[in-house]
Amino acid sequence: MICRSLRNKALYGTRALPTALREQILALRECPSTCLQTAQPWGLDGRPVVAEDCTPERSCFRSEDPIA
């Protein structure tokens, strides 16, 4: 599951791709990631923004599912 706040240039134009494929693209780490909530390479919890670490266990995680 990808956090909605995770931003990475490698993901631009990939919204229509399956989540699993987008996760594979992020795993390549070809571009640095930033957090939309902080606009920095670390999240609100102070930990680095890394795709495989931006999981629901983090307090700042935001689900991709739209909030009703």
Please explain how this structure is put together:
The chain is mostly loops. It has one domain. Helix content is 13%, strand content 9%. A two-stranded antiparallel ribbon has the order 1-2. The longest helix is centred in the middle third of the chain and has 9 residues, at 19-27. It is globular, with a radius of gyration of 11 Å. The two termini are 19 Å apart.
What is the total number of structural domains?
1
Number of strands: 2
Percent of residues in helices comes to 10-25%
Instruction: Sum up the overall morphology in one term.
Output: globular
H/I helix tally: 1
- Compressed to H and E, one letter per element, the order equals EHE
Largest sheet: 2 strands, antiparallel
- Biggest sheet strand order reads 1-2
Low-confidence stretches: none
